[in-house]
Design brief:
The chain has 228 residues and is an all-alpha fold. The protein is built from 10 helices and no strands.
């Protein structure tokens, strides 16, 4: 893990949670949302603002960009908020329960590997100050989820949407691996996807290295992703 990798991940999380919590707030009167609406305990957008400000500086809003994969995730969340708000439950469950579980391990890894301050700068996202017992809270959340009065069709749709949520998160992670772990920039990824090198539209001036070197890195990245 590197600081640049954590920067990318934090930026993507900020966009994702801002969208999710905007839609949860908008639809909090929906019966499927009301039972699982815990803004004080779970909402992460404000904590993520502090983290991106730590990594990018106070002018972070002019610096960070939403990746293509994260934007697809954001678009899906907003679509559900407008048209099928009950399916937001799948995304809330996938994200928040994961954050209360594995996220706590990642917090410790990030602090040790990147020598982040012990006072919490850069890892506010992982701090759930209003959840005193994560295990008990997860049990409460799951119990409320299981008691939602939904049709069989709605339950099936939520399960299917949870699988989509998992895939969206995987797509974001894969793009970060390409951009960060293997040092391929967003501009270079676009060149790969659109085959712009063949059209002469990629150059060093745009921050793009020769196609040969980037494609070698991409093949290594692809092999790594398949193995993992």
């Amino acid at each position: 893990m590197s600081v640049s990798c954590l920067q990318l991940a934090t930026g993507a999380l900020y966009y994702t949670y801002s969208a999710l919590e905007e839609e949860l707030d908008r639809n909090k009167g929906n019966p499927a949302i009301t039972a699982l609406y815990f803004p004080q305990e779970l909402h992460r957008a404000e904590a993520l603002k502090k983290d991106v400000a730590y990594f990018y500086g106070e002018d972070w809003e002019d610096t960070i960009q939403c990746s293509e994969a994260a934007q697809a995730y954001v678009d899906r969340i907003h679509h559900l908020g407008r048209h099928k708000p009950e399916l937001l439950v799948a995304h809330a469950y996938t994200r928040y329960m994961g954050d209360l579980s594995g996220g706590q391990v990642l917090k410790k890894v990030a602090q040790r590997a990147l020598h982040l301050p012990s006072t919490g700068e850069g890892i506010q996202f992982y701090l759930f100050d209003n959840v005193t017992n994560a295990q008990q809270f997860k049990q409460l959340y799951r119990a409320r989820l299981n008691t939602l009065e939904l049709s069989d069709e709605a339950k099936k749709s939520i399960v299917e949407e949870a699988n989509k949520a998992f895939q969206f998160n995987m797509n974001v992670s894969v793009q970060h691996q390409l951009e960060c772990d293997f040092y391929i920039t967003a501009a270079e990824i676009k060149c790969i996807q659109l085959k712009w090198w063949r059209q002469g539209q990629c150059s060093r001036k745009q921050g793009v290295r020769p196609a040969s070197s980037v494609l070698v890195i991409k093949r290594k990245a692809d092999r790594h992703i398949r193995k993992n």
